[in-house]
Each structure stands twice: as C-alpha cells, then as structure tokens.
C-alpha cells in the first residue's frame, strides 16, 4: 500500500564520523554501513527524537589473509576500541553484515561493524532534521556491550522515557534499559533480559499498575504445534510484566504467534512499542519470509485488548509496510541488502501516526499512516 508521505529522512551521508565515539581510535578507515532502525518519541518542545543506530564498519575488513572485527575494551580509564583479526580459513563471510566462525558445536558470530546510537532531533512531522546530538550519543560503556549497542525502542510511560536496546558481546546478547526525564539525556539502568531475548518493547502505559512489555526470545529449537494447528512453530512475540520496569516476569499466555496460513511471517518479532488507542493497544511488528540469507522483512499490525494484551482483537495478513526500491534508488551504490523494512518507532500526530523504520539496514524511513488504516 502506498502512503502520501513516505520518504527517507536520515541516510549514511548525513552522519559525521569525525564526531563518532570511535573517531581517531582505530588504525583503519571506517564508514557508515547504515544509519537505521530509529527509536522514536516526541519531546516536550513538540519535535520528534529519533535514536538512530549507526553501524560503523571497516572500509576494508579483509586484509593480510584475515577478517577484522571492531571491539570496545575496558582496560583503560574510559575504554578504547580495538581490532581483532580472524584467519579467513576459519570464517564464513556470506552475510555482508557479519562473519561466522567455523567449527564447534554451535553457531558463533562476529561483526565487521560496531553500532552506537545517535540522537537526531526531527521536526514535529518527522520530515526535517533539526539537530544531531553527537554529545548525547550512546556507545559501549560496559564489557557486555563490547560489540555494540543496537536497535533502540523508546516508550513514554507517565513522565519518564524508557529505552530498551540490544547490547552485544561474547558474554551475552542482552536487552539493556536506559531512562530519561527529557528524551535527550539518558541514564543506563540495568540489563533487564538476558541472552538473545530481543525486540523488547515496553507498552506506553500501565495495565493495573504494572509495566508490560513484548519480548522475543530466540533459540535453535522449537516444539511443533499439532498437525492442522492454525499456528506455525518458531520465534513469536511473548509478553512480560513488571512492577518497576527492571524485574520482568513472563506472562503465562502467548502473545502474537506466526500463522500457519502464511509463510510471510514464519519468523516474527516486535516493531514499535504498543500505544493505547480507544479500541486497544496498537502494535506494529515485523514478519520475515524465508529467502536467501537474510529473508524478506515486512511490517504488520495487531490490535490487542487494553486489559489483556494476550488477546488479539484484530490483525491482518496483508503487510502494512514493505521495502521500497524507489526510496533507496539514490543510494544504490551503498546498498548491501534488499527486501528489508524494519519498523521501530511510532508517534501520534492527530489524524495519523508518524512511523519510523529502518530501510534496507541503510537509512531511516518516515511514513505517515492514517489512523483510518487500523479502523475496524
């Protein structure tokens, strides 16, 4: 479906790496592989704040028979960034974003880029850049973030902004929580979910005095549904609740599950923090159709009961958003992925929503979606 306002607003060319947290620390050239997957919220001044994931990559990761990874280490007063070299005969570089180490009884991955978060202030409609807040960038600061901080999701709950991020390291692939009073200055709170529990989205409001969140634990093994079930086994969107947004208990009922009727959502995960409407909690999420190495990522939506978010009131198999080659055509020389739109933020704008997505793991896309699109 086409929307009247749908464009890229932040691209790799907009980022000034001379102001990067990595600047001057590596004896190697880096570039912006992607400026994408923006968390989104509205500031007190009416402007929007996009927390953009900057994937800063090595221009030449392979040299002298080795592939190199960027890593932050804490053995100095403020930490430093270093390069690790892996012999090419031990790795698989089929995916341009990462490489896999061969051998062993489980999958082991490393990255040729390191991600940090850049706050970008946008106009109220999300279509113009107001300011880049490099001085408020969020970069690795702990050992459990040594391979980067990724994919912010921002929720406004009462007077507080809560932001979940994915922190990446050999120790754990964890969900970390930051909080803010103004949406610009962020304080690290805690690790809130442990290994490979990704796409944590905190509901923008309490339910019976409790914080609620969508989660998406990953694994290599899933148990089958019985033959003829309407559900497909695999990654699904679960629910958890908490008295304080720090300590989370999984909810005993399932959340949003892949339907057996379509392969387009065979793999799924959360997209935007659920927001409360007159009819219930509106949540946008991603479904992945298997294709080649990465798959086809599309955005879907569901409406959840306002008192019991495990109850799906309405949803559609038809995607809400798909990747758009016309949007990225001016960036063709930078493209390394196709068929990917990954929606990560939403803000109310009266008769429509401002929806923020990562396009092709490359740039930030803003789409204005009429509220009528979700009407029953």
From TrEMBL:
Which keywords does this Swiss-Prot/TrEMBL entry list?
Glycosyltransferase, Hydrolase, Transferase
Q: Which domain of life is it from?
A: Bacteria
Tell me which InterPro entries the record gives: Glyco_hydro_beta-prop_sf, Mannoside_phosphorylase
Any one Gene Ontology MF annotation carried by this entry is:
hydrolase activity
Coiled-coil residue spans: none
Family (UniProt): Belongs to the glycosyl hydrolase 130 family.
- Record's protein name: Predicted glycosyl hydrolase, GH43/DUF377 family
Source species: Novosphingobium panipatense
- Taxonomic placement: Bacteria, Pseudomonadati, Pseudomonadota, Alphaproteobacteria, Sphingomonadales
């Amino acid at each position: 479906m086409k929307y009247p306002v749908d464009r890229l607003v932040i691209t790799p060319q907009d980022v000034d790496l001379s102001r990067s947290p990595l600047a001057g620390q590596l004896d190697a050239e880096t570039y912006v592989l992607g400026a994408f997957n923006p968390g989104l919220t509205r500031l007190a001044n009416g402007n929007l704040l996009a927390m953009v994931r900057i994937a800063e990559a090595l221009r030449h990761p392979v040299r002298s028979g080795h592939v190199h990874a960027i890593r932050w280490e804490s053995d100095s007063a403020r930490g430093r960034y270093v390069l690790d070299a892996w012999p090419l005969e031990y790795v698989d570089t089929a995916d341009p974003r990462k490489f896999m180490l061969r051998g062993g009884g489980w999958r082991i991955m490393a990255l040729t880029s390191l991600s940090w978060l850049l706050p970008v202030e946008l106009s109220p409609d999300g279509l113009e850049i107001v300011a880049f807040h490099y001085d408020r960038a969020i970069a690795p600061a702990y050992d459990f973030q040594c391979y980067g901080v990724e994919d912010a999701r921002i929720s406004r709950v009462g007077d507080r902004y809560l932001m979940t991020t994915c922190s990446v390291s050999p120790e754990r692939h964890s969900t970390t929580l930051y909080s803010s009073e103004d949406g610009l200055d962020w304080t690290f709170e805690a690790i809130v979910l442990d290994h490979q529990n990704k796409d944590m989205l905190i509901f923008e409001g309490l339910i019976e005095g409790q914080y609620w969140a969508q989660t998406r634990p990953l694994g290599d093994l899933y148990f089958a549904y019985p033959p003829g079930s309407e559900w497909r086994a695999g990654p699904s969107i679960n629910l958890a609740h908490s008295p304080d947004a720090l300590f989370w208990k999984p909810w005993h009922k399932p959340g949003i599950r892949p339907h057996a009727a379509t392969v387009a959502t065979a793999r799924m995960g959360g997209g935007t923090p659920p927001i409360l409407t007159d009819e219930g909690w509106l949540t946008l999420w991603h479904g992945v159709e298997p294709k080649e190495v990465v798959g086809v990522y599309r955005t879907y939506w569901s409406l959840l009961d306002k008192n019991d978010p495990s109850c799906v009131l309405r949803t559609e198999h038809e995607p809400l958003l798909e990747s758009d080659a016309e949007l990225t055509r001016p960036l063709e020389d930078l493209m390394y992925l196709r068929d990917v739109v990954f929606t990560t933020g939403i803000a109310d704008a009266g008769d429509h929503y401002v929806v923020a997505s990562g396009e092709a793991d490359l740039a930030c896309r803003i789409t204005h979606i009429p509220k009528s699109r979700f009407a029953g």
